[in-house]
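During the second half of the funding period, the structural biology subgroup turned its attention to how the target accommodates small molecules. The most pressing case was zinc ion, which had performed well in the primary screen but for which no bound structure existed. We therefore specified the complex as follows and requested a full 3D prediction, including the ligand pose.
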Amino acid sequence: MPLYEYRCENCGTFDKMQKVSEPALETCPRCSGKVEKLIGRNVGVQFKGPGFYRTDNSLVKDRVRSLNKERQKDNECILDGDVKNYAAQAESTTKKVIEA
Ligand SMILES: [Zn+2]
């Protein structure tokens, strides 16, 4: 499942893991304030701002951690100047992200 980023008018940004078929949140799960969906950012593969760390969904954290490990492999290939390997590694990581 992909992670979506929302911004609550009271609590700021937070991430929510949702099925693609699920409708977007309209109210904040914490304060019931109005939220807007931040478009075009799949945050599942990046460390990011305080919004992520405020969530206490350990499943999401584990998922992000394992995906970051994959991305680390990508980066190691780049550091080695191994572009061909990098392309293959990045492709397999992307597949994992899509399947998530
Ligand atoms: Zn809120």
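Two results from this model are relevant to the next phase. The radius of gyration is 15 Å. Residues 58-79 form the longest helix (22 residues).
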